[in-house]
Amino acid sequence: MDVSITSGPAFAMGTITIPPGGALRVEAGAMAMTRGDIGMETSTRGGFMSGLKRSLGGESFFVNDFHSGTGGQVGVAAALPGDMVEVTLDGRQALMVQSGSWIASDTTIQVDSKWGGGRGFFSGAGLILLRCTGVGEVLLASYGAIHGFSLAPGETMTIDTGHIVAFDETVRYSVRKAGNWKSTILGGEGLVTDFVGPGRVWLQTRSTNDLISFIREVNPQRSS
């Protein structure tokens, strides 16, 4: 996947060049433009259950496969203002992705979901994380800028749950309260995630939970 990311980190757009005979898989609704010889096919990709699993993980039930006979470009953009990052998968490990962060990938990448138990409720996303496997490139989007970190074996890192974008499956994680009940209620911190290496972790500089809370404060909804 040949990706050019522009206008980041605030309003990133990914322009992906598809070679003659090539193809690209994109989250439904993420296409911003096409250029050249580009065709599109919409499907659940993998059948009803695969589409259902993706939808449980916060993505669309459907995906769009773009293909080109002579070559062209597809531009993709996320729903919220923020950054993009291209992640390479070599087939040896899976990439766990926060709900809503997967935006495009090579067609050789399988995008599925994984039941995370009580540990997987990042940003109110329920108990499902998207699991990307295979050999190829994955394009991730964030709310705010993206920062990537590489954890050595046994190295730890704690991140607010609302700021997680993705992490390698080799990284162990657990979700807990930020402190005692007093700091949780009065300190403005709720749940945090402890990561233990080895592996890569990506975070976003803004939280969608904080955005939703702000909107509710300035525009409270009244029930009749």
From TrEMBL:
Transmembrane segments: none
Pfam families on file: AIM24 (PF01987)
UniProt xrefs under PANTHER family: ALTERED INHERITANCE OF MITOCHONDRIA PROTEIN 24, MITOCHONDRIAL, TRYPTOPHAN RNA-BINDING ATTENUATOR PROTEIN-LIKE PROTEIN
Alphabetized InterPro entries for the sequence: AIM24 (IPR002838), AIM24_sf (IPR036983), Trp_RNA-bd_attenuator-like_dom (IPR016031)
Record protein name field: TIGR00266 family protein
